[in-house]
Each structure stands twice: as C-alpha cells, then as structure tokens.
Write a structure and sequence with these properties.
Layout lengths: L5 H8 L1 H4 L12 E4 L15 H6 L1 H7 L3 E4 L27 H13 L3 E7 L8 H8 L11 E2 L20 E4 L4 E4 L14 H17 L3 E5 L25 H6 L11 H16 L2 E6 L4 H5 L9 E4 L9 H14 L6 E4 L8 H4 L3 H17 L3 E5 L64 H4 L6 H14 L9 E2 L7 E6 L2 E6 L5 E3 L1 E8 L19 E3 L3 E10 L5 E2 L3
Parallel strand pairs: 1-2, 1-11, 2-3, 3-7, 7-8, 8-9, 9-10, 10-11
Antiparallel strand pairs: 4-6, 5-6, 12-13, 13-14, 14-18, 15-17, 15-19, 16-18
Helix pairs in contact: 7-9, 13-15
Length: 563
C-alpha cells in the first residue's frame, strides 16, 4: 500500500467525523471491538481471520461504526489467544499476512471506518526472540528487556505480587536461578519499561504500523508497563487464604507498586508525539476501579482516550449504574477522553449479566444508549448488536487458559458470530470451529436481524444513527438531571435529555419534547411527540431508555404513570 501523507492520513481515515469540523477525527466516534478469531472465517479452517473481516465489513458500515478495534493478529503461540506476541511486525498465518492488513485498512477506509490495532506492550510471549535470548544468556542485551529478580527467603518469589490470572506473578527460571515477572500467564513475561532499548523498540513498532496506515492503537494493559523501582511488595488489604476467584485475590492487594506508575505517562507522551505525526489516536485499556487513578492516565501528555472498564462488572442496580457512569464523567476535565465498554472479550456479556433473555437484552440496550450519548467513545463488543447472550461452552471444549474456574472463563463471550442459519452459521465452511457456537437460534443471526423492524440489530443501528444525526452535540457537557435519583438515571447534553429507568414501573418525567430514540418497540425514534398533546410529559417504561429533544426541563419530580 502506498503511504498516505502524514498530515492527511488521520482525516482520510474518518470522513464521517470530519465534515466541517476542527475536532479530532475520533471525537464522538462509535467504536466496535472485533474479536478476530470469532468474527468470520475466510479460509475455511474454523478460525476467524483477516479474509473474513474484509468480506464482512459491510456489517460494520450498516451498523454505523466509525472505528474498529481489531484484537491481535500477530504471530503467537496463542497461549492467551494473541495477547502473547512473538513478533510485533508480522501477521500470524492463521489470520493472513501483512498484505491482507493493508487490504483491510484500505477497504475499511473506503467505508469511512478507521482501524485501531491492539498494541500488547506490557508483556511479550515467552516465545518472542527477545525472551528466548534473555533466557538463554544472562549477559545478552535482551536480558534487561524483562524483569528478573533473585529469589526471596527460602527460594520464595521475590515479592508478593500476584498475577491477574491467579497465582504468583513470578516464575523461577531454573537455568539462571532468578525469577521473571509476569502480570498475566507465565508464558507472558513482563517487559522492563525502564530500559530505554524497550522504548525504542516500541517506537519502531508503532511507526511500522502507522506507515502501513493504521489509525491508532489500543494499548493493552496501559495501567501496567512501568513497575516501581526496586520491585517492593504491595501492601496487602485482606487475607487471600480463603479466596477462590482470581479477581478477589487481585483485589486483596493495594497495587501501589505493580501498576499505574507515573513514569508510564512519559511513555504515552512519547507514543503520542509519534501518533501526532500521523494523525493517529492513542487509546489505552486502563483497568482500574478508582476514577481518580483512571483519570490520571489521560491528558495533554497522556492517552487520548482511556477505556473505562467498570460498566463491564456493574449489576442492574440504579445506584451502582449511576456510580459507574458518573465516576469518570465527574472527575475528568475532558470527558470526551473516556472509552466506554458495556461488554467485552474478557467479561460475561451484559445481556447475561443483566438477567438474560429479552429482559437482559432490553437492559443491555438501555445501558448502551447511555454510553452512546455520554461524551467519549462507546465500544460495542462484537455480537452485542445482535443481543447475543453469553454462550455456554461445555468443559471439554473450553479454550480460555484462565477458564479452569467456570465463572472466570472468557470463552462464553468469545464464541463465533452467527451470520446466518444452517451449519457453520455463515461463520465458516469448516465442520468445526475453534469454540462452539453456543445455543444460538436463527433469530440471533445477522441475516434474520438486518432489515427486520424491531430486531436488536435495527435497534442498535437506530441508536447509532440518532447519535450521528446530532453530530456530537457540539461537545456539550453533561448535566445530571435534578431527578437523577431512585430508579431513574438521566442527563442533559445540549438539546437532548437521555433517561434510563432501571425500575419496573412506567414513569412520567418532567420533560416535554420530541422522541429521537427509544429502546423499545422498533427503536426507530419515530420523530413523534411522545404523548398525545404537545404539552404532555414524557412517559418512560421500566427497563428502558430514551433520548428526547427537549422543549424545556420542568422543575418537578417524576411520578409513576398510570399503567
Ligand atoms: C487484556 C485483554 O483484553 C485480555 O484478553 C488479555 O488476556 C490481557 N489484556 C493480557 O494481555
Ligand atoms: Ca480461518
């Protein structure tokens, strides 16, 4: 692919967001997380690949997506399905080759879709040549690319750090007698970001992909990277003796020394300088629950966008939902820098978390409505637009390396996309797939839903198109409505109010205006007055959300509406 002049590339990438505006092209974009192994299989081996993505890009265009984040396609032993990279500047033959990445970028750009790729910077695969040579010879220049430490007393690990995936964050390398650090699997050794050589390697890698035309990066584990000098033990908050879940063990420590070190900001700033030459965006996965800590990664010298992951864990509870929506909005100077995720490749799908079935789907769409209309970039997760539930994956077919504990298995949200009815669900021609499909029925498929009034796909499509028509609301700030309490969560941005009723009762709201979008019915935003007379207040059914172009906001509180 010929290289596009640096100054114009960012703009070329996102024609939708560009028209007559000076804002960065990614502002107000709608993102989509494409889980490559499960999107579409183009070469018939039962595993999703780049051929499949190119063939199916019209799905993303029809949905109204502006930016697609593609999960890792690099050569990898697949111990963590690509989040263990063995070569940052190549493509694993399972997924295609470099020329296909070029074709994909071109094809996506032609459809007005920007392409963001995953940059796995906290760790490599243990199969990466850097780690192989580091392990082979302690005097090798690559030894210091990783974090090594002598055993503690009695041969124990050097400190009390734990892995996100369970167990100690240290593995003994018997050849050298030292331990190496891994915040994830032992097959994913952490890089030493205090080593300037590591920094220059990644500067080179980033330029490699920017030269090929990618529009930005999703930095995996952006809260990780630099570790505290001297690798001190973290303060421990609670005993882990009786804890069984890996998340609870992680939460039992105050992660003062293993994540969120201020020096990581300096790394983002360096990457940002390079990205700026190409008009590219720097988006980080920032997995922390504290909104202040989260906010510290964003800013003039930090990430352009930080992904806020707390909505991935929230139960259907008004106060908890309110807290995860308000948390970052109320603490960040520019809330357009928030990336919102309601479902992802790592957590049970929102539909299932919120009770499953039609109710779960309704609730997931209602939350998505809030995320789309809040400032920042919402990322739909592949299949969310079909209202997919978590699939059940029988024990003997599980693939996730951390799936040994049933609740924490990520397989159920990673099963292949159902495109059309019949064997292979239009995903593959092969007689088996890397993960089973789960319990999908014809109504779950893209073919059944696209163009079918009232389908989940059409409701998500209408949601996105209602947002695009408002063109980002001119960057209006969020004013939480005075009646944002009890079952109701609501905010005003510019000319619209967005309201979510988490309860079961229909509520009459002190608002009048034109309905631009509603999560129930056909979701089309019928462009009618909500009520019979122009003066009547808006009625919002339980478990639903809506967007209203306001006439005015009244001073009174919402009341239960007659059934
Ligand atoms: C976050 C990714 O989303 C997850 O799938 C992966 O296992 C970890 N980072 C480690 O790279
Ligand atoms: Ca394939």
């Amino acid at each position: 692919m010929g290289s596009i002049p640096a100054t114009s590339r960012g703009l070329d990438a996102a024609p939708r967001a560009r028209t007559g505006s000076t804002k960065p092209w990614w502002r107000d974009a709608i993102g989509y997380c494409l889980y490559l192994r499960s999107f579409a299989d183009g070469n018939g081996d039962g595993i999703g690949d780049l051929w499949g993505v190119i063939d199916r890009l019209d799905h993303l265009e029809a949905l109204g997506i502006d930016m697609v984040w593609i999960t890792p396609f690099y050569p990898s032993p697949m111990d963590d399905f690509g989040y263990d990279v063995a070569d940052y500047c190549e493509v694993d033959p399972i997924f295609g080759d470099l020329q296909l990445v070029d074709r994909l970028i071109e094809a996506a750009h032609r459809r007005g879709i920007s392409v963001i790729i995953d940059l796995v910077a906290n760790h490599t695969s243990f199969d990466h040549p850097w780690f192989r040579s580091a392990r082979m010879d302690v005097s090798n220049e690559h030894r210091d690319y990783y974090l090594w430490a002598d055993p503690g007393p009695g041969g124990s690990p050097p400190n009390n750090w734990v892995s996100y995936f369970g167990g100690p964050a240290w593995t003994l390398d018997s050849a050298s007698g030292q331990y190496y650090l891994h915040l994830f699997l032992p097959q994913q050794p952490d890089l030493n970001w205090r080593n300037p050589m590591v920094r220059s390697e990644f500067d080179r890698i980033i330029r490699f992909w920017l030269e090929r035309g990618v529009d930005g990066f999703r930095i995996d584990v952006a809260q990780g990277l630099v570790k505290a000098e001297g690798l001190p033990s973290n303060p421990q908050r609670a005993s882990v003796a009786t804890l069984t879940s890996r998340q609870d063990v992680w939460a039992a420590f105050d992660h003062r020394y293993d994540i969120l070190q201020p020096e990581s900001i300096d790394i983002f700033a360096g990457w940002k300088r390079i990205c700026d030459e190409y008009g590219a965006v720097l988006i980080g996965e920032v997995s922390v629950a504290d909104p202040e800590a989260f906010a510290s990664t964003i800013g003039t010298n930090g990430l352009d966008v930080a992904m806020w992951l707390e909505p991935l864990h929230v139960p259907w509870d008004a106060d908890e939902l309110r807290a995860v929506l308000r948390g970052p909005i109320d603490r960040i100077v520019d809330p357009h820098a928030i990336g919102w995720l309601g479902s992802s490749l790592d957590e049970p799908r929102a539909v299932t978390r919120f009770g499953g079935g039609q109710l779960g789907r309704q609730r997931a769409l209602a939350l998505a409505t809030m995320l789309v209309f809040l400032p920042g970039i919402p990322f739909l997760y592949q299949g969310e637009e079909l209202g997919l539930e978590q699939s059940s994956v029988p024990a003997d077919l599980r693939a996730d390396p951390v799936g040994d504990v049933v609740e924490s298995s990520r397989d159920g949200c990673r099963t292949p996309m159902p495109w059309s009815a019949g064997p292979g669900f239009g995903f593959t021609e092969h007689d088996s797939t890397w993960l089973p499909f789960g319990d999908h029925v014809e109504a779950d498929t893209v073919s059944a839903q696209r163009g079918s009034s009232g389908s989940w796909f059409e409701r998500y499509r209408h949601l996105i198109s209602a947002w695009h028509e408002l063109d980002g609301l001119n960057g209006s700030p969020v004013d939480w409505l005075s009646f944002d309490e009890g079952d109701l969560i609501g905010f005003r941005r510019g000319v619209v109010a967005v309201v979510l009723n988490t309860g079961t009762q229909r509520l009459e709201l002190p608002l009048t205006g034109e309905v631009l979008y509603q999560t129930w019915g056909d979701g089309s935003g019928k462009r009618q007055r909500n009520a019979h007379s122009e003066e009547e207040n808006v009625i919002l059914p339980g478990q639903n959300a809506m967007v209203i172009r306001l006439d005015k906001v009244g001073p009174f509180s919402p009341t239960a509406a007659p059934a």
